[in-house]
């Protein structure tokens, strides 16, 4: 008996959902479930899905990070794919080696995505080689998931109640750079929200020189 494969699309774009629903069920022989970001966790718990596809054009990177963490912690065996992955923002922290199956940049065509997803269906990954290599370089530079000096500075600044923009101005960098530091720090210390990061910093930052 033919086994139906279920994929979930997390997107706020009805146009993208309609486009994929016209192509993917026939192209990949899958059943698609559409989920608003706020509904993903509940729907994933009530329906069997082997893959979750995040549309980063409509899902905020921070929210995508939190949703990816839910998949990592609570849904063993479910793989994730990122569409419209940004080139101008360092979002490598979203990618988890044991969970992420595919990454497609904002300029990837549907044909390119289709070729990549066929690789995923064969049990392989579809992550651009240059992105994969840069991830490996970050892992080598950042041994044992230790916080960098700048990540510690940003966490320390959270304790003062500063906004991301305030911290950016203080450190003479862009606000998006501060967000990147925060997301990386969140993953390393095992938190998924600003409040949890502040609580962690209140307990541990006295051990850190910044």
Automatic annotation (TrEMBL):
Keywords recorded for this protein, A-Z: DNA-binding, Transcription, Transcription regulation
UniProt GO BP: regulation of DNA-templated transcription
Stored InterPro entries: Sig_transdc_resp-reg_C-effctor (IPR016032), Tscrpt_reg_LuxR_C (IPR000792), WH-like_DNA-bd_sf (IPR036388)
Pfam families per the UniProt record, alphabetical: GerE
Protein name: LuxR C-terminal-related transcriptional regulator
SMART domains in UniProt: HTH_LUXR
Molecular functions (GO terms): DNA binding
Domain (HTH luxR-type): residue spans on this chain: 140-205
